[in-house]
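Q: Got a minute? One more chain.
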Amino acid sequence: MGACRDLRGRRARIVLGAVCALAALALSACGSTADSAEVSVETVPHADRDACDGRFAAVDLEHHTRGPGASRSMFDGMGAGLAVGDLDRDGDDDLVLANLSGASSVLWNDGTLRFRREALIEGRFRQAIIVDSDSDGSNDVVFTTGVGRPLVMRNTGQGSTADERFERDEIVGLDAYTYSMAWGDLGGDGDLDAVTGAYNAELTAERRLNLGNKGGVGLFEHDGETFVHTQLAPESQALATRIGDIDGDGRADIYVGNDLATPDYVWFAGEDDSWTQATPFAQTAFSTMGIDAGDIDNDGDLDLFATDMKPMDDRPETIDAYANVQSDIDASPSDDIQRPENVLLLSTGDDFANDAPSFGVEATGWSWSGLFGDLDNDGFVDLYVVNGMVADNLFGHLPDASLVEANQAFRNVDGERFEPAAGWDLDDTTGGRGMAMADLDLDGDLDIVVNNLNAPSRLYENRLCGGGAVTVALRWPGTGNPDAIGAQVQLADGRDSTLVRTVEAARGYLSGASAMLHFGVGDSSGPVEIEVTWPDGTVSTSSDLDVNRHVTITRSGEAAQS
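A: Always. Here it is, folded:
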């Protein structure tokens, strides 16, 4: 319907206004009620892949997350997250790594996987998200503390150092105890809202018992210069919070993953801006640690993966290591839905079925972040899970009170099963917590960053050098959602399936996600077509695009009025 050609120049730019008008007519003729968005498209070839040895190469980063002193409490052992995003608007993603004690770090991306570290802020932080919190067009850094309200390092857009560029501030109206959080355009009105989740276990340990309406799960809707708060649930143990469409109706829903046998929460968005609590899953994890979404089988429906802490085997030494954990699980109340294992919730269109056992991913150890990404560029999203725990009360019988387990990498085989990817060299035992995947050197494949605990954070450079790829960045200038968080992007490469991705601000455990989307296309030579459903429901289509390109799609105009 739309059209855009790469003119093979370094910067080819074609405005699609007339084409989008034709697309609107075509949609009308087909009976569609979706409005058409006017966009311009810019394409840039991916960088050359310099190293190709069929594995991931680990590099230590200049950041080390530690707890205070020699503490080995359970809460310190839960570690911290990281965020990926473009803080200086130079086209590549920078990194922010949260810390429990000492300085959190910003690592400026200077290209070709070279990063320049600066201290960002001292304190005890849990989650990091890179998002435009004040609608000024510059991405800020939002941190959670677990025992108080979020704070923001506001990006002034000025200066060449972190001290000059960022100012510590609070977000007006966003006042809640927050361990995990997510941001999204819940109303489709072109500005960003937030959902916060408290971890009541830590608050109780801190003797903060009277939480009022600041505890549990909070919805904060953007209203001019402030946020309006609605408490969705008074109680929570929220280790993971996700905003994204679950029921396939095109509206962003809310999914909160709870620890400590507390049931997970789901709210569906209604047509009248209402929220309905639902139980769409026949099975959930017992202690949900992280949540991610991806289309496993390329059927156009987003599937969900939630991590838990099921041992990988039943060897005597493993059973002994988990003895205290198992005792706690046995003593905890539960229901017919929760089970102490990972769940892979495959969407059937109308329902979800847990296929983790048949896909071989129900038991990956004490797992924190588990993320989908097409690591080998074959057209199917793979899975990477990071593991480990430190806690005197649970693992005091082990050396350094530490449960040491290898991270788990799984290759997606034709959307039918996952198989261990032992040759990828991702079986690190350092102790990962937060994680992100992003194409950090713009060469068309996904690299991985992990914020470890009591060890340096690590970057895993992708040297698999698999098939072709297309990366996509959306721009929505003039709105409070400049990166179009919440947009769904479909890519058709001429084969039988259509690849689906969504722009999300938070993924996995305590981590912020890159707004740049990655599509592996295998051996497809293109051309490809990209259809964007923007957060307000309008649609743009760009056709005749070559593979192995980074595509920037910029929308003009304000959000459509509902």
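A: The chain has eight helices and 44 strands.
Q: Perfect, thanks.
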